[in-house]
Write a structure and sequence with these properties.
Layout (H helix, E strand, L loop, with lengths): L5 E5 L3 H13 L3 E5 L2 H11 L3 E5 L7 H11 L5 E5 L4 H9 L4 E4 L4 H13 L2
Parallel strand pairs: 1-2, 1-3, 3-4, 4-5
Helix pairs in contact: 2-3
């Protein structure tokens, strides 16, 4: 039996976290969640996920800081940045940190799950 792919979803908005978690569970993923940047880094180290979905704006340690710390540990893991607000400056910073892609929270989640699957788990 093939092992389930593991995704770490990080977002301080509980409703969004639950919706996206449900989508990935329905697509046969193992899902780990975190609601803060600090918790995300702990779970990243402990769980060794195959990919991350990371909110850019969170209180405390924001998504860009988390991305920077993750890139210092793993330069190749797919990290998708989620945001409700587009900011050119934040997108540029995330690109410099080699974010895999960006997802606006208003986007079609079914399509985004397919895009993440393709980018995160191709061999």
């Amino acid at each position: 039996m093939e092992l389930k792919k593991k995704i770490l979803i990080v977002d301080d908005e509980v409703d969004f976290l639950e919706v996206i978690k449900t989508r990935f569970l329905a697509n046969n993923y193992q899902v780990i969640t975190a609601s803060t940047g600090e918790e995300a880094l702990q779970k990243f180290d402990k769980e060794n996920p195959n990919a991350l979905l990371l909110d850019i704006m969170m209180p405390g340690l924001d998504g860009l800081s988390v991305l920077e710390k993750i890139r210092s540990k793993n330069k190749h893991i797919p990290v998708f940045i989620t945001t409700a607000f587009s900011s050119e400056e934040r997108f540029r910073t995330a690109n410099k940190l080699n974010a895999t892609g960006f997802i606006l929270k208003t986007d079609n989640l079914k399509e985004q799950v397919a895009n993440i699957t393709e980018a995160a788990f191709r061999i």
